[in-house]
């Protein structure tokens, strides 16, 4: 009997979960979060979220340009839920390390996604492979899957409150 036979999950799921346990990323660390930023356009919001990652040397500046170009070319496909945008680009556009930043907008903005506008939270994603991209997305989705967490994101007033929300203290 193989080890995975004794589990209630498939070998693929087991492998995926093990990789996630060993997966390191810069996820909403203090220098990667800005609350209540005034921006006038979606592009400005995307650039602000990307600039946080550039400042910490997690992505190259051209990655930010690629996120904006993707939005301009493909539309707001990354506005995945009400209030939530997750712009990203391809790994080869300049990802150095898996990372996620957050900009909470002072005033919500329309990105052009009829179903999910307006956007209040921009989570910029940087991942160096498809596998990392899925793991980063999974981590964000686990945070945002509870409506009460989104409500808490709307009103938190400090990074310490965010740490408590994401389980760091």
Automatic annotation (TrEMBL):
InterPro entries: Ascorbate-PTS_EIIA_comp, PTrfase/Anion_transptr, PTS_EIIA_type-2_dom. It is found in: Cytoplasm. The keyword Iron does not apply. It comes from the Bacteria. Keywords: Cytoplasm, Kinase, Phosphotransferase system, Transferase, Transport. Pfam families: PTS_EIIA_2. It comes from Planomicrobium stackebrandtii. Residues 26-169 form the PTS EIIA type-2 domain. This is PTS system mannitol-specific IIA component/PTS system ascorbate-specific IIA component. CDD domains: PTS_IIA_fru.
